[in-house]
Amino acid sequence: QVQLKEGGGGLVQAGDSLRLSCTASGVTFTIYTTAWFRQAPGKEREFVAAFSWNDGETYIADSVKGRFTISRDDAQNTLYLEMSGLKPDDTADYFCAAGQGIFTTVTVARKSKYAYWGQGTQVTISS
């Protein structure tokens, strides 16, 4: 049974940093593309960042480029999202996801490419 569990969310002030983690069980991250998405209240879930299995590349959404970094510890089967320079617009529930197959710069951002999802962790940025 595949389970993804996020942690590290919380309430911080604008300009602060947070590190989110996503620990997997029942799946070996090294053969999956793993990603972070987020969903703000009343909005669609959107792509944030991904670590691609098939080409070893990392992909970062333009909205967070330069502020967010994705990394992965394969030995611990854990995915991270380092967030700095946080803004109130970053307030959302953050979800990690894992999927298999070939990913491209276009498909890496598609929710339908990911078979497994965590329950999410809430991040709130106060101004």
SSE class: mainly beta
Low-confidence stretches: none
Q: Mean of residue pLDDT? A: 94
Cα distance, first to last residue? 40 Å
Tally of alpha and pi helices:
0
The count of strands amounts to 11
Rg from Cα: 13 Å
Percent helix range:
under 10%
Strand content: over 45%
Main sheet summary:
7 strands, mixed
Spell out the helices and strands N to C: EEEEEEEEEEE
Shape: globular
Structure in words:
With about 130 residues, this protein is an all-beta fold. It contains no helices and 11 strands. The strands form 2 sheets. Strands 2, 4, 5, 6, 9, 10 and 11 form a 7-stranded mixed β-sheet that branches. The protein has a 4-stranded antiparallel β-sheet with strand order 1-3-8-7, with no helix packed on it. It is globular. It starts with a strand and ends with a strand. The relative contact order is 0.32. The mean pLDDT is about 95.
In short:
With 127 residues, the chain is mainly beta. It has strands spanning 3-7, 10-13, 18-25, 33-39, 46-51, 58-60, 68-73, 78-83, 92-99, 116-117, 121-126.
Note the topology.
Layout: E1 3-7, E2 10-13, E3 18-25, E4 33-39, E5 46-51, E6 58-60, E7 68-73, E8 78-83, E9 92-99, E10 116-117, E11 121-126
Parallel strand pairs: 2-11
Antiparallel strand pairs: 1-3, 3-8, 4-5, 4-9, 5-6, 7-8, 9-10, 9-11
List keywords for this structure.
127 residues
